[in-house]
Amino acid sequence: MARTVLVTGGNRGIGLAIAQAFAKQGDRVAVTYRSGGVPGAGAAEPGFGAGGADRQNGLFGVRCDVTDAESVDAAFTAIEAELGPVEVLVANAGITDDTLIMRMSEEQFARVLDTNLTGSFRVAKRASTKMLRGRWGRMIFISSVVGLAGGAGQVNYAASKAGLVGVARSITRELGTRNITANVVAPGFIDTDMTAGLSEERKAEIRKSIPAGRMATPDEVAGVVTWLASDAAGYVTGAVIPVDGGLGMGH
């Protein structure tokens, strides 16, 4: 059965791989982005009346700033008009602003939490109304191994990603009887454009720290996310699933 899926920050990297995996299995897929648009996709800009869908890969792009509740509401309204109520939410949008705690400003800490953690709250809150009405829903929060194990120079990022566990588990207790699940996926090092910029020496160091001996592909993360959104995972909720090759050992 085809579902309406929203992947925030779905225009590149892991988010795009997740969106494409859902589209490949026949779902109606929307992605949000702050800038740059969606590769090959038309873009709806809430508040401007523009809209479009990429008929080649099935992605409907919507400009959205997850730090702004009005922008989130406008994005959902555009998606609902084009594809129907969001049944599967993948809260993936996030940023980093790394530096050691002694140098980290209040603004740096607050900005990362507002995007990664509070932004996820905003989209989950907006999605929950229609999920409750339909008595079915899947919420999947993209965290990180850093949120479980910590990371030097990443107090803000680690805090934001760890907070998603509390969000998902609280939603599980609130909405679990309505056939709505909420889970967390915690990727480790993934082979993306970001890691591609690392030196070969640094990549070798990273691989040595991973029991599996390699980085994951974005598609390996996407496979876990699409499974969590399926009927087969209907009794899995409040879980944290690492996709890290054993790096975090579950923490």
Automatic annotation (TrEMBL):
One of its GO terms (molecular function) is oxidoreductase activity. Keywords: Oxidoreductase. Gene3D superfamilies: NAD(P)-binding Rossmann-like Domain. Coiled coil: none annotated. Pfam families: adh_short_C2 (PF13561). It comes from the Bacteria. Residues 3-193 form the Ketoreductase domain. The keyword Protein transport does not apply. InterPro entries: KR_dom, NAD(P)-bd_dom_sf, SDR, SDR_fam. Belongs to the short-chain dehydrogenases/reductases (SDR) family. This is 3-oxoacyl-[acyl-carrier-protein] reductase.
